[in-house]
Amino acid sequence: MVIGLTGGIGCGKTAAARFFEPHGFVIVEADQLARVALAELPSLAAIQARWGKDCLRSDGSPNREWIGRKVFADANERAFLESLLHPRVATLRAQATADRSRSYIVEIPLLFELGLESTFDAVVCIACSDEVRLNRLEKRGLSREQATARINTQMPISEKVKKSKYVIFNDGDLDFLEAQVDRLVTTLRP
């Protein structure tokens, strides 16, 4: 079973994913796969050719903070980066979930934006209120303006909720989130 786990930035997808692990699910994070893809030589060459040496750290690795500021400030630059990374991430994701004897939770923030819903046995959306999201993102070090800009680059959470087979609302504490995941697992594995 391969479950797509999505939701908006700051909704708690990563926290929810961790609660599937004790139930035997293997967690695959699209963001981690994107970091791998970005650090590969073809990607490094492409971003340096487009943006110059400022997009790289002194050791030649990608400067993710610089790149984040660049792509969240300019939709064209974000589209460039996505077109560069998404095909490679899809390949890495397929490799990571190839053993069909296992069950997987694949955490993909842009699952619906990329039209990937049909590639999963089911889609679970983690949702919460905008105020909770903003507070969580501020605790991660983003200003309210940066957090709002990142939220606005994604499909509205209300749309993700409508498109998902299962929804977990995560305005509460971690114990409540864990209890919801536990209940969902019993539905997924009757």
Structure overview:
With 190 residues, this protein is an alpha/beta fold. The protein has a single domain (2-183), classed as 3-Layer(aba) Sandwich (Rossmann fold), CATH 3.40.50. Helices cover 54% and strands 14% of the residues. It is built from 9 helices and 5 strands, in the order βαβααααββαααβα. It has helices at residues 13-20, 30-39, 41-51, 64-73, 75-96, 130-139, 144-152, 157-163, 174-188, and strands spanning 2-7, 25-29, 103-107, 122-127, 166-169. Strands 2-3-1-4-5 form a 5-stranded parallel β-sheet, sandwiched between helices. Helix 1 (13-20) crosses helix 9, helix 2 (30-39) crosses helix 5 and helix 4 packs across helix 5. The longest helix has 22 residues, at 75-96. It is globular. The two termini are 13 Å apart. The mean pLDDT is 93.
Briefly, what is this?
The chain has 190 residues and is α/β, with parallel strands linked by helices. It is built from nine helices and five strands, in the order βαβααααββαααβα. It is 54% helix and 14% strand.
